[in-house]
Amino acid sequence: MSRAGTWLKMLVAGTVICVGGPMFVQSIRPTDEELFKRYNPELQKRSQEDGDRRAQEFDDYVNRLKQWSKSDKSIWFAAQEQEKQKRSELEAQRSQAKDEAKVQREEMRKELLGDK
């Protein structure tokens, strides 16, 4: 066989593999509805209940990504800064709660000692 015939067979085989392979995978892949129908009833119920919450969490995450991308810094650095800020706020809240509890204990102690 000539070189042209070999190249033609190679091009046809490559096209069949490159186009036919993904088409075959797409044809046998189940849709989301088919997968959902295969769930047992308990999982279907839980999936429906958690669906709205998960969608909201995803939307929040996408909005945070958009916010981070507006910064002139890398998204990862912006995310780290926001994490640090959240940690510091949480730490401040904890220390404030500790201080309030300490003040409350002191007041209770004074009250108990004052009654005796």
UniProtKB/TrEMBL annotation:
Parts of the chain that traverse the membrane: none
The name this protein goes by in its record: Cytochrome b mRNA-processing protein 4
Annotated family: Belongs to the CBP4 family.
Keyword annotations of the record: Chaperone, Membrane, Mitochondrion, Mitochondrion inner membrane, Transmembrane, Transmembrane helix
Family matches, as PANTHER family: ASSEMBLY FACTOR CBP4
GO cellular component, one term: mitochondrial inner membrane
Protein role: Essential for the assembly of ubiquinol-cytochrome c reductase. It has a direct effect on the correct occurrence of the Rieske protein, core 4, core 5 and apocytochrome b.
Membrane topology: Single-pass membrane protein
Region Disordered, residue ranges: 86-116
GO biological process, one term: mitochondrial respiratory chain complex III assembly
Key word Mitochondrion present: yes
Location(s) in or outside the cell: Mitochondrion inner membrane
